[in-house]
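ESCALATION

Customer reports they have been waiting on this structure for their group meeting. Please prioritize. Original submission:
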Amino acid sequence: MIGSIRYHADSHVGLKRSQNEDCYSIVELESENASDEKRLVFAVADGIGGHEFGEIASRMACERLSRLQGQEVPLESARCETFLRALFFSIDLDLKRYAALHPECLHMGTTLSCLVLNRDSAIVSHVGDSRIYRLRGGSMEQLTTDHTFVQEMIDMGEVTPGGAKHHPLRNVLTRAMGTQERLEEIDVFSFEVKSADRFLLCSDGLTDMVSGEAIASILNGGKDLESTARELMHAAIQNGGKDNVTLVAIDVNASKS
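Update from on-call: job pushed to the front of the queue and completed.
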């Protein structure tokens, strides 16, 4: 059973952008019993659309999640999955309605990757290419799948993962929240959480600048969360900082009961 949950979040505009279109949200949910451990929602959003419009989209998405503060969200995994899927579709509709009323925002949108930590399980809800990783037993796994043209090409065997790193379409999304394209599907799934699991949510400003191997090495470096997050951010900036960088690092410890 999940005991204490520690986390550290950071966001940086990077070295090439004048505005930060990333956003993150951390929300504590209402527990069914006062004695229950905390249930937390973590999310990272990376706005698209240029100028201030991407910032509006990512902020609106995170603000909707922030409204969950103190609310009762289904605890059972299947019901929570259904709840999150409906919430994501609702956020997508809110963004589309806002853009319809503000024509200058017509091309705005955002990624949104969300992790809910329950008593002994986690639920992921995901659209776009902001990623969620899990470090368990020294091994890092990417839990989310990028919704990009290049990822589809990898899946079809048309390009290798190595070749995808420099492909001109590597950041072109096939799925995003709030765009004029119809959002037909949201990736939602649950899994068991184990003691000593470490999670990382991040925008592509990190993953485009720092290799998966380097991220795994830093996460597995034995440092506390704040030092780990600082090292990840430093690596992204030192490697060029070509985009906004946002990350949320999370540690899970076992319950003492």
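Sent to customer with the following note: The mean pLDDT is 92.
Escalation resolved.
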